[in-house]
Write a structure and sequence with these properties.
elongated; mainly beta; Jelly Rolls
Length: 337
Amino acid sequence: MLKRYFTSALALLASLAGSAQTTFFHQDFSQTTGLINPQPDTSQFSHVILTAPALSYHKFHKGYMELTRTRLDSLTGGIIRAMRATPFSPNPETLIVRITLSVEGVQAPALNAMYFYIGEDFNPVNNSFPGNGLMFAKCAINFLEDGFNIKDLETRQVSKTYAEKKQVTLTWVLNNSAVPLEYHINPTSPEETAQPGTYDLWVGNEPVARNANAYPGTSAYSKTKLSNFEMRFRNGVGKFRIDEIRIDDGKPQPVVENAFVAPNPARKDRIALSGKGVNAASVRLIGVNGKVLPLKTVIDGPDKLLLKPLSPPASGMHILQLQHQNGKYQVLKLMIE
């Protein structure tokens, strides 16, 4: 029992560290070179494929990617595929895909002008339609006479129509795990939940599909079903602008980053703690022997607390345990000289 607090605090610290968000792909096109690599890092496409580069092509600009098709027929006019065919690592059980884009012009309307795919074993050589057996989910953008909309291909639900050049953010929440995935569309929005084996599709703050069944057709479960991503501009004549793509596992950033001790190592008589929203009465200093050490907590300025041990603690590793005003707990490692 002597080390109960110390052991519990270390367990909480480990669980918080384990919940850190994993980013699989993020590109805001702040650079225009080095964005394609068959063995990509988290900022690179594995492949960008042009089947008729004189008629359908892409260009990286400072701050965005441009995709253009100039002929309606996909066979002679070509297609554009921007993809991550190299599997995401570590293998994700959940994904949140956020794509900020606009349709800059529509010269020839078409259904399913741009496809978005999430699945596995995508082939960068074979440009035919990927089968349902490879898919977790898919959606598309339609080119319309008066703008564009986004369609979920499983439920056939469509978003409202957006005008040309209107920037929107598509948010796709995909859950291949055995437990619900809780998420927020933006930092101020209410909490939403994607159930196991389903996905949610949003445009801005408006849902297009909720709890839509994944695995189209009769495809079997696969633990790697979220390992590949593709955008495929196949139909219509017009131009897309892609401003940003972010793909992560949807886990919240750990609270452990919210407050910090500086300096660390700290002195025996005073420990300076900085962080917004810390409940001063909740702060506990746990010694190397697992005991909670008595201390006095003093407000030392905006978002700053000064912790004064009532007796000098031993030198070595200690644990600070605290609670934020939003109810979240945090654990910090602290070295005392």
